[in-house]
Amino acid sequence: MGEAKRACGGFLVGVSSSTLQSQSPSGQVILISNRGPNDFVWEQSRWVARKASGGLVSMIDPLARQPNVAWFCCVSEPPSAEDARDALYTTAADQTDPEHHIVPVPLPARIYQAYYGAISNEVLWMLQHHLVGQFGYSSLDAARHRAWNEGYLEANRRIAAAVRESGIKPRAFLIQDYHLYPLPALLREVFPRVPSLHYTHIPFPDAATLKLIPESWRNTILKGMLGADVVGMQTLWDARPFLGCCDELLGARVDYQRSEVGAPDGRSVRVRVFPASTDPAAVRQTMQSHGVAQARERLARRLEDFTIIRVDRLDPSKNQIIGFRAFGRLLEMRPDLRGRLRFLAFLVPSRTDLSVYRDYREAVYAAIRLVNQRFADECGFDPIEVFYTNDREQALAAMSRCDVLLANSREDGMNLVVKEWAVVSERPGVAIITETAGVASEMGEDALLVSPLDIEGGALAMARALDMPAAERLARLDRLRAQVESWTAAHWLSAQLEALGIRQSAKHTGHGDDAPDSRS
Question: Is residue 312 located within the same domain as residue 215?
Answer without folding.
Answer: no
